[in-house]
Amino acid sequence: MKRRPAAGRRSPYQDLPRAAFWRSAMRAPDEETVAALYRPKFTLTPQTPLMTAGSCFAQHMHRALTRAGWNVLQGEGTGRLLPAALARDYGYNIYSARYGNIYTARQLRQLVEDALADASHPAPVWTRDGRFFDALRPAVEPHGLDSADLVQQARTEHLACVRRLLSQTEVLIFTLGLTEGWIDRATGLALPTAPGTVAGQYDPDAVAFHNFTYPEVLADLCATRDLLHAAGYPLRILLTVSPVPLTATASGAHVGAATTYSKSVLRAVCGALQAQDPDFDYFPSYEIITTAAAGGPHFARNLRDPSASGVDTVLGVFAMAHGDGPAPDIAPPPEAQNAGKTAEEVACEEILIEAFRK
What we know:
alpha/beta; four-stranded parallel β-sheet; 11 helices
């Protein structure tokens, strides 16, 4: 039997909406509770120039928004003459430029610093089978280039494209994926993956493992915004957190605990910036995929990749919040979701780590 408060008693919880209570919000999500997940700070329309970047899950955002007709900028060619799968392998059409996956806030800060600088940091160059790879985006040339000089030339051209892209962008949609990363000791630069995964050779004297902390992630995101504004690019940043668990951890912890740490730090940073900084907002793709808030969890059979219906739900919530679509269909229960179709394939260096599994 439900207990009723005594007559005359008042509580700050007394007049809250259904979405504020776990039982009513999660048991049977409806349009009202799903709509309450995301109350945008920024006014966006399908015509707003958007730039996408981030970890592997950001590719789903880029693809879905592009297909839905949103003005997602493409600043570095489209590979139109290539078959779709081949274009993806070479980094075309997965983000707004061919920077590959940007898993950490430090990587984003580095990219913006280099794009806005008169002279960028020389990128570490990795080799494999006599070919040369840009260590800061090793997967965009899957077979490498003929020389280290060509790697640097390609990087210079890439950064010029990124700078033009930033000058056209009003809102950057950035998906944070990891706190774990690898630092090149010689340059201090954060790498998207450890050497030896895509190319190069692992040498503990040349690279160091680093697990970014809350203060570091917060500082890197704020520094990125400050760099852009100082250059005369007053764009705003819409943050998301990837719901995809870590493939593996080098922290020494269980991969489940390491995933919880990583996602918790990233989500906490997003919450602080959303609440306190007018230049940042947060879109809850993490909550939509991983919780019952929108009929989830929305994972495929491997319990790691988002399901196709989950990605559709993410876009539906985004479009509904910005007045460009109806409420998304609430997905079936988790047991049915996990048997569902996996979302479309993405290009992801991190998943290559699985090849080293024992």
